[in-house]
Amino acid sequence: MRAGRRGEREGIGSKQMKCSGQTRSLGRKIAGIAVLLAGGLLAASLCFGAPTDPSQSTNIFQPLSTPAHSIFHLSMLVLAITGAIFAVVFSLLAYSVAKFRKRANDDGREPAQVYGSNQIELAWTVIPILIVLVLFLATARVIRSIQDAPQPPGAIEVTAIGHQFWWEFRYPALGVVTANELHVPVSNPANSAPTFLTLLSADTDHSFWVPRLAGKTDLIPNHPNRTWIDPQETGLYLGQCAQYCGVEHAKMLLRVYVDSPEQFKQWVEAQKRPAVGDDAVAEGRRIFETTACVNCHAISATIANGRFGPDLTHLMSRDTIASGIAPNNRENLRAWIQSPDSMKPGSLMPAMQLTDHDLDALTAYLVTLR
Amino acid sequence: MSSDTIALSTVGPDARPIGERLHDWIVTVDHKKLGIMYILYALFFFVVGGVEALIMRIQLIVPHNHFVSPEVFNRMMTMHGTTMIFFMVMPILFGFGTYLIPLMIGARDMAFPRLNAFGFWMTAFGGLLLYFSFIGGNGLYGAGTAPDVGWWAYAPLTSHAFSVGHSTDFWTLAVLATGIGSIGTGVNFIATILCMRCPGMTLGKMPLLAWLNLVVGGMVIFGISPLTAAQIMLCIDRYLGGHFFDTQAGGSAVLWMHFFWIFGHPEVYILVVPAFAFVSEIVPVFSRKPIFGYPIMVAATIAIGFISFSVWAHHMFTVGMNSNGNSFFVLTTVAIAVPTGIKIFNWLGTMWGGKISLRVPMLFCLGFLFQFLIAGLTGIMLGTAPFNWQLSGSYFVVAHFHYVIVGGIVFALFGAFYYWYPKMSGRMYSETLGKLHFWLFIIGFHLTFDFMHIPGILGMPRRIYTYEPGRGWENWNLIVTIGAFFQAAGVLVFVFNLLWSLWKGELAGNDPWDAWTLEWSTSSPPPDYDFAETPVVRSRRPLWDLKHPEDPDWKYE
Fold it and tell me: In chain A, fewer beta carbons within 10 Å around the N or the C end?
């Protein structure tokens, strides 16, 4: 309706602008900044695998499980599309600033007054709509492939329960209960063994996130969720709680051990055995059973059957304590029992004010729980 | 335009005693004074919220740092978010709206001047209440603790079981009070824009700023109301034995999320649409061309207003909706890119073929365009649900929404500050200091928020007070913290420029930018009555018509 009306009258573009030296130098500057920026981001992306120890990586672009792979492929498509949009729009922006900058020898006349153009506006409405449709269809497909994947009969079932500030893992079919360190079998085309997790929360919201295995899914009280992984290589995969859950949200770390089928079988067998009862540490055991420890912790074949804290039946089969924040050894265990707050301020485990002697005896007992 | 009359100037030293002048400000219902009070109040909280951000950044500069305790960090993170959204960006945008809308539509005040004052004082009260928690959070005897539940305050963290003392109540009541003020302001914007326009100014001849604030008014009413309702429900839970969000008694944590985000996503547009409005006024003036495609700009804004109410659950992709629900919210979320894209293209169309003058307001608008483009694109990444399952709750999201709020909204705000400062104060700012501010801030911004995307991709969750070494996060966090200090330096230069120019700046005159909308036809600062004679307009650019009688706009619109 108004397409360039006054523009036509005044001869749009006719008196316009050869690229002067000044605009050219500005154009060069902008191009330089763009190259620098792109180079910086490229260098950054090359450093993505920066952790010196690859098992420490939590890079979402190093997927090793089907859901993480599907997401990775989708994200590459999305990055390509958004990258192309960026290139086009940024070029237009840089070009218009460089080309249409007011020059020093400006004649002081107003430029052609253009009000709009229906054709151009229609074009830049329709093209984005087409891009949106492509993105939506590609995304909906991946959503279905991940969320609606059927659970095969051989799948491992795990119930993960989020607590302030640790993880409880239960294997109902296998009769195993453990904490913070999830063991699952490797899954490959020859021997598919995915793990399906039911996600529950005992208190506040948490989120289960092991970036190299799958996207995150929240653990919400009164709202059971599901997720699944099928890790394709054995090894250790790190993650941590990704939904703010209180004071120690930062130290609610998560470790997933992907075992070979044999290792996994052995691990399950070991976990199913009752706790070791060693008479040499009977004193430590007595302290454990007569202190408030038993209200929160469980050790099979003893009177301890608390559910508030991690199950300690096979405490020493785990590599870390306090939800992954410290290596599991005698010194750390003793320091932890003596003062949980100094290792993890805000942890819900109280300091039991034990004497040094009792502490030593208790630690001696705990380190026998293999 | 028949009203060539330029209002009489009232600039001159005010001889009355200071107490009397202060009293004037306290009891005022004048939209210009209330606008300036909103802006100064918000600037104060901008500095406070900025200091909280710096405390967090110092804590995260190296892994396992002990600069602050986890409790303090969590309070800083909650207060920073709450302050910046509710007590910085919203009041400052309302301030500009309150100041500019009557001037730009040729009115002498808002439709409801007392409601206007009420809205400001409710917001002011809300901010003071929130910060009083530092003193009274545990009840006076227990000394203070600020709220530490995060600015979304997800249930059940806010229940008595997990949040003892009163810190959460301070948060709830502060947001509730501010929300009531905001709803009043939204009503006032709509009434003013619909009923107070000067003769000749049909809806189609309003400046875009008025159109966009009309949409904001509607969004405020429909967006803030569910938040206010949710705060009341939370109060009922905490004090009257309700169980809306009490999961231990069968309440629903997800219900709170729905309430919060059906406010929370429109809120993003409540904040960004006024920023669009500034850019839509500044870019034409500094390109010397009218806005490209005015009708489609209006249509796109209305489309954004509507669609923004259908996207909220994209904040909840990880909550466990079924695949149909997730797909629906992917569609609506990426669909909002269409009207937003139209806006970006139309701004480019406005600059195309113009004579772009790179004064400070325009520099900030160019920064806005560049950064908002990137923010939109990372928004598309986050809008595709599976990618979101990886990125949400990570530092990538933090980088994304700071790109929107700082890179987009705050840049547009700084542009607006420099553009309308001469009108509000009567004096020009220092161009040199303005450019120094721009460069410091844009360097700091990109150091901080460009590099903040990377730890997110490397698996670093947000809202953690410390992190483990060895995951490749250390260097990025160091750069991010360094950038934060550049930004702080930029803001100091900005504040200094505002104050210094108030005493030493050159007199601006009525129309320093050779601009086209009505506010530039009256004196700087405008008299109490805005216009001595009600203006009459015939086009969207009344001052263009006045300056170019041989070639007026109304012949072409």
Answer: N
pTM of the model: 0.92
Q: What is the band of A16 on the pLDDT scale with cuts at 50, 70, 90?
A: very low
Residue B314 lies in a domain: yes
What is the domain extent for residue A312? 279-366
Q: Is residue B243 assigned to a domain?
A: yes
For B493-513, what is the mean pLDDT? Answer: 94
Beta strands in B118-214 (DSSP E): none
- The kind and range of the H/E element at B307 are helix B294-307
Q: Cis ω on the peptide bond leading into residue B525 (within 30° of 0)? A: yes
The CATH number for B384's domain is: 1.20.210.10
Query: In this model, does residue A191 exceed pLDDT 90?
Result: no
- Lookup: tokens for B223: 């967006």
The verdict on A211 and A358 lying in the same domain is no
- In tens, the pLDDT along A203-231 reads 999 999 999 999 999 999 999 999 999 99
Instruction: Kindly determine whether residue A114 and residue B292, on different chains, have CB atoms separated by under 8 Å.
Output: yes
Give the whole-angstrom CA distance, residue B401 versus residue B58: 20
CB atoms within 10 A of CB B135: 13
How many angstroms away from the CA of A259 is the closest CA of chain B? 22
The domain total for chain A is: 2
Task: Report chain B residues whose CB lies below 8 A from the CB of A53.
Answer: 470
The reply to whether A248 and A318 lie within a common domain is no
Angstroms from A56 CA to nearest CA on chain B: 6
Closest residue in A to B371 (Cα–Cα):
A90
Q: Domain span at residue B24?
A: 18-555
CB within 8 Å: B330 and A139: yes
Tell me, what CATH number does A80's domain have? 2.60.40.420
